[in-house]
Amino acid sequence: MSYLLYGAYGYTGRLIAHRAVEQGHQPILSGRNPEALRPLADELGLSHRPVDLSEAGRLRAVLDEVDAVLHCAGPFADTAAPMVAACLDTGTHYLDITGELDVFSALARRDREAKAAGVVLLPGVGFDVVPTDCMAAALHKRMPSATTLEIAFMSTGGWSTGTLKTAVGQLGKGGLVRRDGRLVSVPPGWTSRTVDFGDHPRTVVSIPWGDLVTAAHSTGIPNITTYTYLPHLGRRLLRASRHVQPLLGAAPVQTLLRRLVGWLEAGPSPEARRQGHSVVWASVRNPDGDRHSARLQGPEAYTLTARTAVAAVGHVLDGGTAPGYQTPATAFGPSFVLDIEGVTQ
Ligand SMILES: NC(=O)c1ccc[n+]([C@@H]2O[C@H](COP(=O)([O-])OP(=O)(O)OC[C@H]3O[C@@H](n4cnc5c(N)ncnc54)[C@H](OP(=O)(O)O)[C@@H]3O)[C@@H](O)[C@H]2O)c1
């Protein structure tokens, strides 16, 4: 059983490649730039297959060699569609580390095709959305009558340029929440609340996060709000962005912002990753006002992503994951995250 790790030489792809080898996996490394791919493959003693996503025939030939792909090249708004199409054509299971809401929605719409092709479509096997999805499913199991779900997260240690470029692509789209089963547009940072992440109460602000799609799929809960911790200035800037929302989405502004992000460090240093951590909190409520809340601690977002992504692809290759569109919790059950090294309740 083998898999292709696409986007292997990106910041997160490299972490995943190293984690995979630590876990005894031997993925074939892939990406569009042969010059970047070869040294990493040599360092890890792995095979490599350079391929651009626009090379439809070659992509299918490469996928014919493997049982699954772990797709790590984002923004996934640009990269998921050609890879998913090739996976459906070749009967290759698809996993990715997206956190992009539109990508989750687009893949959910391909559920029937994936079932017909016998293919698992499992996006979001990173920090977004493994811990939050598993918590949402666990809380829903505890309270099947829940109609409202709130999820909040924080991660210290910093962000990769890839994550920031992906976030830039979301600017100008405004906020979203799920109400009565539907995604509803709201202004950026439209609501906030206080959450106890285990140290002291912190103010979290609403942001449109992948769980608005994935947790709805995993639990069927019709009202969902997702939040993150931002310091005071960050919250003010997020709220102020509503006044320039159309401008932020304009092509020249997007290009400029992506260029500025490109000047930053590729991602958190090994030291920052070692010192960082993440906390996820979730709460469900039913119409009677009963509540259940839970909290998970873990490594910072990139370390956790490498661990969850490698564990997820390992499970899919072991067999037993039902074909079709899946979330981490529907694929492996709510306790999947608890088996990940460094995650505690
Ligand atoms: N779910 C989570 O919690 C989580 C965690 C970490 C990262 N992510 C997401 O994963 C993505 C990658 O993050 P990163 O930190 O690894 O970023 P990165 O260091 O910028 O790496 C991005 C990778 O994607 C490749 N790529 C970009 N566009 C491509 C395209 N059109 N065709 C083929 N390859 C393409 C890049 O190749 P080139 O160098 O050749 O352009 C590079 O290998 C981002 O979207 C990020 O938001 C999600």
3D structure, described in words:
There is one protein chain. With 345 residues, the chain is of the alpha/beta class. It has two domains: 161 residues, NAD(P)-binding Rossmann-like Domain (Rossmann fold); 171 residues, Dihydrodipicolinate Reductase, domain 2 (2-Layer Sandwich). It contains 15 helices and 15 strands. It has a seven-stranded parallel β-sheet with strand order 3-2-1-4-5-6-15, sandwiched between helices. A six-stranded mixed β-sheet has the order 10-11-12-7-13-14. Strands 8-9 form a two-stranded antiparallel sheet. Strand 1, helix 1 and strand 2 form a beta-alpha-beta unit. Helix 1 packs across helix 14, helix 3 crosses helix 4 and helix 8 runs antiparallel to helix 12. The longest helix has 18 residues. The radius of gyration is 19 Å and the shape is globular. The protein binds NADP nicotinamide-adenine-dinucleotide phosphate.
Q: Please tell me the total number of domains.
A: 2
How much helical structure, as a percent, in the residues? 40-55%
Determine the CATH superfamily of the largest domain.
Dihydrodipicolinate Reductase, domain 2
CATH classification class of the largest domain: Alpha Beta
User: Mean of the pLDDT scores?
Assistant: 93
Which architecture of the largest domain would the CATH scheme give at its second level? Answer: 2-Layer Sandwich
Shape: globular
CATH topology of the largest domain: Dihydrodipicolinate Reductase, domain 2
Helix and strand succession? Answer: EHEHEHEHEHHEHEHEEEEHEHHHHEEHEH
Given the helix and strand composition, which structural class is it?
alpha/beta
- List the ligand species: NADP nicotinamide-adenine-dinucleotide phosphate
Major β-sheet profile: 7 strands, parallel
Count of alpha/pi helices = 15
- Quote the distance from N terminus to C terminus: 33 Å
Tell me the number of strands.
Answer: 15
